[in-house]
Write a structure and sequence with these properties.
Mean pLDDT: 87
Helix content: 55-70%
Shape: elongated
Order of helices and strands: HHHHHHHHHH
Radius of gyration: 20 Å
Structural class: mainly alpha
Strand content: under 5%
Length: 205
């Protein structure tokens, strides 16, 4: 009988899942190769064989979070209404955060810093938002610098999602607060002509 493999895809998946949970719930210094391997019921050798060490494993967690959020926000269809599209992107962001709470916590808790003023990669989760904002600015729906608008939107989205995941807001309250806050942010950046039409009305269904 051959020796059981210790570096197959199942082990790799367990290591990423365990590392994600530990990074999201424990101090980062306590997330050691030995601790993750024990949680995944494998050996430290598997970590080095599959990821090259702790940094490689953390990189795999980061890549999963980045690609997951990017895929969800990129799947938001484009409509004829730039404001409705921006609101839909915010909703997709919240939905991904609620559905992947550990990945969300790791992504925005230190493994990956968010810098909308920095260089945007091909699969950076901020890219769909910046693209939609650029369109809204070009169509004279929003007025302002795209990265500044993105930062204000992200601050609102991140703050509300973080509070919800922490249990500070129940689902109904979070739903209402998210909708009203994101609409208010979009109204705040709207051009005067668009703003007058938005007063007292939602910017999205």
């Amino acid at each position: 009988m051959g020796r059981p493999r210790t570096n197959d895809e199942a082990v790799k998946e367990r290591l990423v899942v365990c590392a994600t949970e530990m990074l999201a719930t424990r101090p980062r210094e306590s997330v050691t190769v030995r601790a993750v391997a024990a949680a995944a019921e494998t050996s430290t050798t598997a970590v080095y064989s599959l990821f090259g060490g702790k940094d490689g494993l953390i990189g795999a967690v980061r890549d999963r979070a980045v690609s997951g959020l990017f895929q969800d926000v990129s799947a938001v269809p484009t409509s004829e209404d730039p404001l409705a599209d921006l609101y839909a992107l915010a909703v997709a962001y919240r939905r991904w955060g609620r559905g992947h709470s550990h990945l969300y916590t790791v992504l925005f808790g230190g493994v990956q810093s968010f810098d909308p003023s920095g260089e945007v990669g091909v699969e950076d989760p901020i890219r769909p938002l910046l693209t939609a904002i650029d369109r809204a600015v070009k169509e004279s729906v929003l007025a302002g610098e795209a990265t500044s608008i993105a930062l204000s939107m992200w601050a609102a989205m991140h703050g509300l999602v973080t509070l919800e995941l922490a249990g500070a807001l129940d689902t109904a309250t979070a739903e209402t607060a998210f909708g009203s806050t994101m609409r208010a942010v979009l109204r705040g950046w709207a051009t005067p002509a668009v703003f007058s039409g938005l007063r007292g009305a939602d910017v999205a269904p």
